Amino acid sequence: MRPPVKLHTQPAFIVGAVRSGTTLLRLMLDHHPQLAFHFEFEFAVDQIATDGSFPTIDGYHEYLSQHRVFQLSEGVIDPELTFSELVNSFLEQKRLRENKSIVGATVHHHIDRIQHLWPEAKYIHLLRDGRDVARSCKLMGWAGNMYHAVERWIDAEQTWELLRGEIPADRQLEVRYEDLIVEPAQTLTTICDFLGTEFDEAIFDYAKTSTYDMPDASLINQWRKKLTNQEIQHAESRIGDMLTQRQYELSGLPIIDVSAAEQRRLAMQDRLWRARFRMRRYGLPLFATDFVARRLPLTGLARRCKDKINTIDNQHIR
Length: 318
Hints:
Blueprint: E1 12-15, H1 22-30, E2 35-38, H2 57-65, H3 68-71, H4 83-98, E3 102-107, H5 114-117, E4 122-127, H6 130-139, H7 146-149, H8 151-164, E5 172-176, H9 177-182, H10 184-195, H11 206-209, H12 223-226, H13 229-245, H14 260-282, H15 284-295, H16 299-314
Helix pairs in contact: 6-8, 14-15, 15-16
C-alpha cells in the first residue's frame, strides 16, 4: 500500500505584491536551518475557482505541464493524488529535500484562495511602499507608466485587507520591507518567533548563494530619486489614500485629478509599452506568432510558443 500523503495543516505563506521584497525575505528564511520556503507558489492556488472549487485533476496536470515556475520547482507529480493531496505533496517534497521541520511558500496573487487548501495557515504580509513597487514593476516591463504600474500593489493590498479580517491575529504578521532592510536581525527575529523557531545567523548566508546582496538602506525610497514629479503624481493620484492609511508619507506634490482623456492616453501608452517590451525580449517573429496562435486559437502552436517564451524568461530570473 502507498504511504498516506502528508497534509500540512499550518504552512506559512509570505504574501504581498510582486516586487515588494518577497524574494529577499524568502531567501533569508529558506537559509534558516529549520525553515524550507518554496519560491512563487501561485501554481497551487491559481486554478482554484472564486467559490473555492478545485480544478479537475487532468486539467491541473495539463496546466502544470506548461507552467514555467512549476517546471523550475523540482516538483514531482503523482498521478494518483487528488488536487489537494498533490499541492500538499509539493510542499512536503520541498521540506524533505531540505530535511527541515517548518515549510512555507510565497504567493503574490489569489492569496485569498490559500485558505481553501490550508484553513489554518499562517501569513506573513510583506508591505512595501507602493511607489517603489510600481517603479520596479515598470522596470520589469509589466507596465508602461506609473499610473498603471501601481495596479499590482493595489490588488495585493486590497485582497490582503479582505483576507486579514478572516484570519485570527495569532496567524498573521505584518512586516514592512523598509524595516527588514534597516533592522534585518530584529525584524527576522520577530518573524522566526512567529513561525515557532529561533533566529539563526545562517539566514544571512543567502548572500553567498544567490544574486541578492545584504540589506542596503540606500535601496529604500528609490522613488524619491528615480521618478519624475509627474510619475509620482500619477501614482499618488491612485494610491495616495492607501499610502497614508499604511503610514507612508506622501511626496508633498499637489494631488492631481487625472481626466478621462488622460486616462485613455495612459492606457494606450501602457499597452504599447508592454507590447514593445515583449517584442524586444522575444523578438518580433515569436511575439507575432504567439499573438496569432493564442487568438485563433492554434493550441499546438501556442504551446510551442509558450515553451520558447518560458525558456527566454528563465534567462532573466534574478
